[in-house]
Fold this sequence. Notes:
Elements: H1 2-30, H2 35-59, H3 65-72, E1 85-88, E2 98-99, E3 109-111, E4 118-120, H4 121-127, E5 130-137, E6 140-145, E7 155-157, H5 161-175, H6 193-196, H7 205-209, H8 226-232, H9 236-240, H10 258-271, H11 275-284, E8 293-296, E9 311-314, H12 317-326, E10 330-331, E11 334-335, H13 339-346, E12 363-364, E13 372-376, E14 380-385, E15 390-396, H14 404-417
Parallel strand pairs: 2-6
Antiparallel strand pairs: 1-8, 3-4, 5-6, 5-15, 7-9, 8-9, 10-11, 12-13, 13-14, 14-15
Helix pairs in contact: 1-2, 2-3, 5-10, 5-11
Amino acid sequence: MASVSGALLAVVLLAGAGWCAWVTARSVRRHRGTVVAAVVAVVILAGTGLLAVQVWARAMLESSTVARSVVWLEADTEDWRRLPARHLQAAASPLPLTPVALPPEALQTVPVAEGGPVIPLAQLLAETNTTAFLVLRGEEILMETYPDGSSRETVRTSFSVAKSHLSTLLGTAVERGEIGSLEDPVTDCVPELLDQDPAFARVALGHLLTMSSGIGNEETGTSWGDDARTYYAPDLRATALPAMVVEPPGRRWHYNNYDPLLIGLVLERATGQPVADYLEQVLWQPMGAQYGASWSLDSTAGGFEKKGSGLNATATDYPRFGHLFAHEGRTAGRQVVPTDWVQEATAAGTAADPAAHYQYWWWVDTTRQHRYYARGNFGQYIYADPDTDVVVVRLGEDTGGADWPAILRDVADQAQRLPRQG
């Protein structure tokens, strides 16, 4: 219905633009050679055309990727407010996190970049559009600050930090026997991919998880590029299916947002339920989330979670996820995620994939042994050091130009040296 209404509206507006052009052309003929008349003609035509495009785009937001790109422009941290979502309930017994008092000199300064000059941490957070910054050691909150004046109840979107949650769901599904193994071809669950490209028979789930699927992906920054399609498309299931394999899988690491869309399809079919519901059941509540959350959908009609970006939660539940991984998948005495999966998902090296700095949708800190982080657009981070039981979370409106991996690394170094309470 929206498509029909939008098309009719576009016809009406274009007819109006044509009428304006006719009127303007008459004016130009009457004042032949008059520059003013020509300028007026151009302004009227351009203005009418832009107005027509905007009105059409707003009428088509539920059904057109291009319309969303025209109206919403580039992605931003408020996109979650524009989209429908599937909601998750908090745990009945949240994992308790206890604030502790630090020595006055603790966590006061950080380098602005690796090996760079040191500045006050509070100044850095204020100057880089940081909205939340938390430091955990075990179940102690060493630091919790909201430089934008909000609070721990404020919802923050994750962008690609959602990928680390999604990969964890796949590992859980393998452990539960709902999916065979990472060697399974994606076509076991999504056989129609073979109709599009027979080469999909060689794309295994593990290739998708390590961003080495060989699927074509070109980020152009335009409304018709793969970056816009995989982010804004109102039917992400349909968007994923026309993908093509352009090089042998497993050969090269190439960050690709078609990969999580296909994993989302696999999980949805293998578990027989929406991925957000599965997240609530096997991860969100078992890990002890204190607050509810949501996962943005492509559209009301599509009902498919934005698998690569759309998880929305409060600031203190992101470190709970990091805490779970820092404890090899255990929390409050429960094994929530298989230990073997946690180790494989965050390991450095190229034994099973082509990139030492990236595993199962986790980034690996190759300068510090055993450390890794989830990372999202505009500087969303969950940084974990299981050796010292430290987790650092940074959320923000943009990166502020900061070298966040280096900053989080330094904060974790400082946190692990602090004396324990009691």
